[in-house]
Amino acid sequence: MEKTISALTAIADGKGGFSIELTEVSPPAAGEVVVKMQAAGLCHTDYDSLSWGKPIVMGHEGSGIVFAIGEGVDGFKPGDRVILNWATPCYACFQCERGNEHICENNSPVVAGGNGFTPGHAHLEGTRWRGQSIERSFNLGTLSEYALVKASALVKIGEEDISAPAASIISCGVMTGVGSVVNVIDVQPGESAAVLGTGGVGLNVIQGLKIAGVDKIIAVDINPARLEMARQFGATDTLLADRDDTGLLRAAEQVKAMTAGRGADYAFECTAIPALGAAPLAMIRNAGTAVQVSGIEQEITIDMNLFEWDKIYLNPLYGKCRPQRDFPRLLRWFANGELLLEEMITNTYPLQDLQQALDDMLSGKNAKGVITF
Question: How confident is the model at residue 114 (pLDDT cuts 50, 70, 90)?
């Protein structure tokens, strides 16, 4: 790649809106790669990015083909199929050295600050919009025909026969859901779990529980259609909740009735509803574990009686992802039929239909919507 190329790109205006416009993508600098995007999954973070107070190239999950590599890039060549990962480790900081690559203190757009711009971002001037440099969401900017990223953001797809849309969803909702099980809890034979919310992340928690060998998986949702979907992905039991059930306390009593009267061993909150942040505590037994998966950051009030007794409440980021370890593992589970990915994609859309894709996501129509290029 010897010269700048034009790319059709989704640009968030920072004030709640977006436009589809051309950007100019420069050749990769040292340690960088240009990826020709094939597919980009959508999640609520992409909608949130519309209101981050600054223009930004949208998109933080996706798959594509290596188009060009910069100086010093090893392990990748043009034509390689890759998954793009937003949690790019530096491998040298306090947390990375302890195996906590998902909370890298230098590169993580969540942990390292910088309003989402960190050293994990390829050189800023490499993408230009209306003559000015523009940042890329979560250091990636996958909602563009071409993405300029650090090589550390890429994981190569092996010999697996996987479509680009299916590969694209691994690097957010699938990793978060499955990882919040297999990387966070230590499942013992005969155990049970409740999953609150069966959207894209919740369905992947269910898949993770099935892979981990949890015997009883109780899906909890207010949407009957979602509960039917949950059974397809591995739920053994379903519980239709009531929208007026404050804190899901009535649902918690039903979960207890389904688990020998004591509560589930584990409960996972996947609703992203702040008022339900404490709900998994009500559903677990004494000495059980509640896992907050959906990333609630608002201030909430918790009745400390819910912690009685010896209960653990965890808040893992991104399923404690270590991309070079976890993505190949997810691809292997997909290849041998343990992990459903193609079935999770409800609809695909061209980039020009991004508004419809966002509307379908917000209405709960999709398990997962994917933009294809």
Answer: low
> What distance in Å separates the CA atoms of residue 234 and residue 204, rounded to the nearest whole number?
9
Query: Is the preceding peptide bond at 309 cis, omega within 30 degrees of 0?
Result: yes
For residues 349 and 331, give the distance between their C-alpha atoms in angstroms, rounded to a whole number: 24
Query: Is the separation of the CB atoms in 323 and 331 below 8 Å?
Result: no
Residue 273 CA to residue 351 CA, distance in Å, equals: 29
End-to-end CA distance of the chain: 20
> In a 3-state reduction of DSSP, which class is residue 343?
helix
Kindly report the pTM of this predicted structure: 0.94
Please tell me the distance from the alpha carbon of residue 124 to that of residue 65, in angstroms, as a whole number.
Answer: 21
Rounded to the nearest angstrom, the gap between the alpha carbon of residue 234 and the centroid of all alpha carbons in its chain is 19
Candidates 244, 246, 199, 189; CA nearest to 220 is: 199
Q: Give yes or no for residue 33 having a pLDDT over 70.
A: yes
Q: Which DSSP symbol is given to 26?
A: P
User: Kind of pairing, strands 127-129 and 18-25?
Assistant: antiparallel
Say which residues have a Cβ less than 8 Å from residue 342's Cβ, sequence separation at least 6.
163, 165, 166
pLDDT tens, 200-215? 899 999 999 999 999 9
The CA distance from 147 to 149, in Å, is: 6
**62, 168 in Cβ contact below 8 A?**
yes
